[in-house]
Write a structure and sequence with these properties.
alpha/beta, 50% helix, 11 helices, DNA polymerase, domain 1, 5 strands, 214 residues, Rossmann fold, 2 domains
């Protein structure tokens, strides 16, 4: 059986392209007085809040008000946004150069669970560091809060494929969370699950190996 060629690559953002450290946000909110902002493997109000924010079911304004209620303080929007965005680090320049070369041979896309506060932050950082818009690096940026869906909901993959006019079997999806790649596999895509920060190590080898197999 001949494998369908890879013509399209859909990337996750945080942990794949964007370096992140969620613990920094946990620390910031604890510093503001929200001590149980995040507890590993335990559902909490904070998780409910940012899941709703990532699905576009809640607004940045509602999120900030909920934070103020939790810490019982009239915090400024900027203080809340700064704490919430502390996890966002950087996109390495060598990775950007690699993606710029990759798009000469593949259609490349972004599919991220994110929210409007974070989107503003990493878009501003990208333009400041690279001189152009992150929207121009990828053919299309699919953001959960805009789509009203978040990974690993199977519908987010099928909708992205449909909106971009992609054939699932010709599309590679890359994510650092196994539940997301497994769900994408169920949508018919080829998948590559990687550890955070290893894209430049894993993807070139994967593409070379795939070409030899097909």
């Amino acid at each position: 059986m001949t494998l369908k060629p890879i013509r399209n690559i859909i990337f996750d953002l945080g942990g794949v392209i964007l370096n992140i450290n969620p613990q920094l946000t946990v620390n910031e909110f604890r510093g503001l007085g929200w001590n149980d902002f995040y507890v590993e493997n335990k559902q909490s109000m904070a998780k409910d809040l940012f899941y709703q924010l990532e699905k576009g079911a809640s607004s940045p304004e509602a999120f900030r008000e909920a934070v103020r209620e939790q810490v019982q303080s009239d915090l400024a929007d900027t203080a809340i946004d700064r704490a919430w965005s502390a996890m966002i680090l950087d996109i390495p320049a060598d990775l950007v150069r690699y993606l710029e070369e990759l798009k000469k041979n593949y259609r490349i896309f972004l599919l991220s669970n994110t929210n409007e506060i974070h989107r503003i932050k990493f878009h501003e950082d990208f333009r400041k560091n690279f001189g152009y818009s992150l929207y121009d690096l990828f053919e299309h940026n699919f953001y959960s809060h805009v789509m009203g869906l978040r990974k690993p909901d199977p519908q987010i993959y099928t909708r992205a494929l449909l909106e971009a006019g992609l054939i699932a079997e010709e599309t590679l999806f890359i994510d650092d969370m196994i539940e997301n790649t497994e769900s994408a596999k169920g949508a018919g895509m080829k998948v590559l699950h990687i550890q955070p920060g290893t894209l430049l190590e894993r993807l070139p080898d994967y593409l070379d190996e795939f070409q030899h197999q097909s």
